[in-house]
Specification:
There is one protein chain. A 10-stranded mixed beta sheet has the order 22-18-17-8-7-6-5-2-1-29, with helices on one face. Strands 3, 4, 23, 24, 25, 26, 27 and 28 form an 8-stranded antiparallel beta sheet that branches. A hairpin with a 7-residue loop joins β12 and β13. The protein is built from 23 helices and 29 strands. With 700 residues, the chain is an alpha+beta fold.
């Protein structure tokens, strides 16, 4: 049994005697608070989401089974050390109890039962399920969907276009929504207290309930506040133990290899062509049970290189598919060995030692402690590929898998360190092929230098900076010649504009409307016509292979491309006309929470009323990304803000877009939305005497 307390925001603070009891209590409390969310993610890992939500889950289930997410989680639990295995199993035991007592009663389950006219009983969690949820959180967070996009570009437009559609750009233009985050560290020589400060905000899809769960985990060994993945024990990405603190950003590394596979049918199933000739593959056949629909048969093929995650294409007597070699599967290791080490960390060096067992995704870590030490490192596992081999999928018939490598040795920070997914300065950690625009990193560094913040209370202007990197890259393409009066008025407003995408900015609204119209015109340009051919990889990859979204991501580079250069002035001038009636940015740039029920026909979306106006942009520090050319609604961005003060943990700050509770009827379902949208994070509360006792765990 463990004690549970709540602060004013309903955030759980859990206190147990030992690590095992704490793990079980965290699982139980998470099931109480986020039962719907964690069950959905457990079913995603198992490739069984369709059993709950019907046809809307089929595309994901097909991918999950082809990628063998569940089996990888089973192998990872079996292969990890005994203490970690027990820690994860105790968490799963807590989830079982919490789901039986409270979580299974989540309103979404009942709504689906009514919609489908049947009752679907929930099954108890298995011990490996928390690692399945961890795998789901990262399975599509690597670069392989973008590599499939590059493959599509090369196949339709030719290899010369791949660099124009790099996926991420160094030119300051809008970047893709696959990943992103901001983080910065200030050495104690820069702060009022003389102790280090860490801060940042991870960028992901605005999932509802939220991606991260604020939590406090205390026992006889440690007392940590942090941001947990609901369904996973510990606080693997962001935490403060009192003596040490840490936070991560995505390193944009080439973390998985992708192979173009040639396959042929044989009596036993398939063979795949590798450097040593045709070899047998492992084929696992299963049936996706679809609630309210017909079952779907799936073949999951695993070659010597990896799992074929795409649909197969007929090619004469052969088939073509693309396999992914994930170190997590090859090594049967999802990095769970880092979970306990992080909770026990008492120094920045302890944090880095714990992250030495991290696997995926490859992250940049900032860590600090009360001795004043600040460290920066890149952690995780990558295939040891030279840069040219990270650009496109490799040909399986001629290229062998390579050994893995891990991140480089930590570097000591003596002043300021900023990470924002940009190309790293140090060659030893340049593990990717292309990176996000340096705009966010440059803006954060500039603001930290100009503002000289000495405490976490002075970070709001950094988190809240709305200067758009997209604007910086695109405004040079605004036509300067004679134009009709409406277009002239828009042009003049844009040329006088400060580039800030504030919700109340009419010029910001004009820029967004002009950019969207320009994206649509460029996407329809004859030079790109072949790109609109179906990609054929599978529906789950549609978000990464939508032409309009990819044009938006690469717009500035495309406008400078020789094939479009002569038409740019006409395209840009015509787009100005479309922006003449634009309203302020916040009129159309509104929050778009992504809830699973939003994809189920006939279901009520619990987040439909949370469409508040937002400042920011996709490549602003205040990240509120949309898809220019398709929608101004913001569906990705800062899914948490955190600032860790090493002088006094109660000075630390945190916020999430929605709230601590997953129940739409709870007062804590979205009570942090206003503070998040206005960049007013809450103070971390750690005084047990000021917290409200809740029902203890281990009781019914």
């Amino acid at each position: 049994m463990a004690e549970v307390y709540r602060d004013a925001l309903g955030i759980p603070h859990i206190r147990a005697t030992d690590v095992g009891d704490l793990a079980e209590a965290q699982g139980e409390v998470t099931a109480r608070d986020r039962g719907w969310q964690i069950e959905v993610d457990r079913l995603r890992a198992a490739g069984r989401l369709s059993e709950l939500i019907g046809e809307a889950g089929v595309a994901w289930d097909a991918f999950a089974r082809r990628a063998r997410l569940d089996d990888t989680a089973r192998r990872a639990l079996k292969g990890t050390d005994a203490e970690t295995r027990a820690f994860v199993a105790r968490y799963a035991a807590g989830v079982r109890r919490g789901m039986a007592d409270v979580g299974a009663g989540a309103t979404e389950f009942g709504a689906l039962d009514m919609l489908f006219g049947d009752a679907r009983p929930l099954e108890p969690w298995e011990d490996h399920d928390p690692l399945g949820v961890l795998h789901v959180a990262h399975a599509l967070f690597s670069t392989f969907p973008v590599m499939l996009w590059r493959e599509h570009v090369a196949a339709t437009l030719g290899d010369a276009w791949v660099d124009a559609f790099a996926g991420y750009g160094d030119g300051g233009d809008e970047t893709l929504p696959t990943s992103g985050s901001n983080a910065w560290a200030l050495h104690g020589s820069r702060t009022a207290s003389g102790m280090p400060l860490l801060a940042g905000d991870p960028h992901r899809i605005f999932e509802l309930p939220g991606v991260y769960q604020q939590v406090r985990l205390a026992c006889d060994e440690f007392d940590v506040v942090g941001l947990a993945f609901p369904g996973v024990p510990g606080a693997p990405h962001f935490g403060h133990s009192g003596d040490a603190a840490w936070g991560v950003t995505n390193a944009m590394a080439h973390s998985v290899d992708v192979f173009r596979e040639r396959l042929r049918r044989v009596r036993a199933g398939y063979e795949a062509l590798g450097p040593d000739g045709w070899r047998g593959v492992d084929v696992e056949r299963s049936v996706i049970r679809v609630r309210g629909g017909d079952p779907v048969e799936i073949e999951a093929i695993e070659t010597e290189r990896g799992m074929v995650v795409t649909q197969l294409r007929a090619d004469g007597d052969e088939f073509i598919g693309w396999s992914v070699r994930m170190p997590a599967r090859t090594n049967a290791d999802l990095g769970a060995g880092a979970l306990l080490g992080l909770l026990r960390a008492r120094s920045a060096s302890d944090v880095m030692a714990a992250f030495g067992r991290w696997v995926d995704p490859v992250n940049r870590v900032l860590a600090a402690d009360r001795s004043g030490t600040v460290l920066a490192a890149t952690v995780g596992v990558t295939p040891d590929r030279p840069r040219p081999e990270r650009r496109l999928p490799l040909r399986a018939e001629s290229v062998e898998p390579v050994p893995d490598r891990t991140g480089a040795r930590p570097l000591e920070v003596t002043d300021v360190e900023v990470d924002a997914n940009e190309r790293p300065r140090h060659a030893a950690i340049d593990l990717g092929w292309a990176y996000s625009s340096p705009h966010r990193a440059d803006r954060i560094a500039l603001l930290l230098e100009e503002l000289r913040p000495g405490s976490v209370d002075e970070f709001a202007p950094v988190w809240g900076d709305t200067v758009s990197g997209s604007a910086t890259a695109l405004l040079p393409f605004v036509p300067r010649g004679a134009l009709p009066p409406p277009a002239t008025a828009v042009r003049d407003a844009l040329l006088e504009w400060d580039g800030r995408m504030d919700a109340a900015s009419v010029a910001g609204g004009m820029f967004a409307a002009w950019r969207a119209a320009l994206v649509r015109r460029v996407a329809a340009h004859p030079a790109l016509a072949a790109l609109h051919a179906p990609h054929g990889f599978g529906a789950v990859f549609d978000p990464w292979l939508g032409v309009t979204g990819q044009v938006a991501a690469a717009l500035a580079r495309l406008l400078a491309h020789p094939a479009l250069r002569d038409d740019v002035d006409a395209l840009a001038a015509a787009a100005l006309d479309d922006a003449a009636d634009a309203a302020e940015w916040g009129a159309t740039h509104r929050l778009l929470p992504v809830h699973v029920l939003g994809d189920v026909p006939g279901a009520t979306d619990p987040g439909a009323h949370l469409d508040v106006p937002l400042s920011g942009d996709g490549d602003a520090v205040r990240c509120t990304g949309s898809t220019p050319g398709l929608t101004d609604r913001s569906w990705r961005g800062s899914v948490a803000r955190w600032a860790w003060d090493l002088a006094d943990r109660e000075n630390s700050l945190w916020s999430v877009p929605f709230g601590a509770a997953g129940d739409p009827a709870s007062p804590h379902f979205a009570d942090q939305l206003a503070g998040w949208s206005e960049v007013r994070p809450a103070r971390v509360a750690t005084d047990w005497a000021r917290l409200r006792p809740d029902a203890p765990t281990g009781t019914s």
